[in-house]
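Quick one: structure for this chain?
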Amino acid sequence: MRARRTVALAACSFLALIAGCTSGASVENAGKPPPRPPRILNANGDRALIFDPMMATISGFDRIRGRVWQDREIAKTANDIVCVLQCRAVVVSTGAGAKGGLYQVAEQGRSAFPVSGVRDARVLAAVSTDDAVVEETVGGRTRITLIRSGQRKRLELPHSGYRWVESPDGRAALAFTVQPDVREARLLQFVRDSRGWNPVGNGIPWGPISDACVAGQGDVVLVLGAETTLIRAGNDRRKVDPSLAEARECALGTSAAALVSRATNDRGDFRTVVHGLDMNGRMAWRRDYPSEAGVTAHPNKPYVGIADGRTFTIVDARGQNVWARDGVAAARFTSGGQLVTVSPKGEVTWLSTELLKDAYRNS
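Got it. Here's what it folds into:
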């Protein structure tokens, strides 16, 4: 599964994630930057990938053994980071050219990841060198190459700069260009089988897209852009309130959806606004935080989780708090509904699903 350039701050490239991402105006701050919480770039039942913006480090954690590797160089060069082997390793795309531009980092150290001989190549998703998705640009023309059991299928595209997002269980995916003011752009859809990724149709014609999320087996999609839209069961499109157009991030499950807006003031202070949506695309609730809050949606229950840097709160479909825990700087639901948390000191914990059952039952 891919720890895409945006997984905790879904509308940012990894480079912007390092600097701080906003969807509103930002004024350069010459003073000392405010503390920023860690970010969970990806997590499953056994592994987690954590970015510490204050130390500019990427770390891999094991549920039993704790931190198993840490790298200080990735944040200096990475354009994209992709989890492979259930996050036991990551593939890094640097844009440095065919030699050294793509490499893998794991507990055993760093090694090459030879999936493309093209100088301008980015790995969008990968399980291995025989099962990957790569954006390649040659002579000004861009293509997405699907590597399935070592065989290659190329999709020629009119634009570059594609972002790849996957459903929580990794069975469905979307790809879309983040270039502004594009024409003839399409929202590309993919499904996964035992051999790798397959395209679904020819994509959906769409204007500029700032972010998109997908849940289930691709049957729920939320697309953010000039007309933010919730798509259900393939053809049921619900336009979201246009007053939420400033939102540049999303969090989505089959029964929960949220839009996220961010901004900083001239002192560098963060502000995050979270808009909870019902599954018809209507705004159901709103939360405003004077911090760089992280947002995660439960994969199949009607809950959205918000970590404001100190406290993690689970909110139901009506906007009511159903569970909270202090001492949580970041949190993320896994595809199985388990909760992975990071403390302000950087300690990573996998919480038992039994811990939340009573809260869900009473909501």
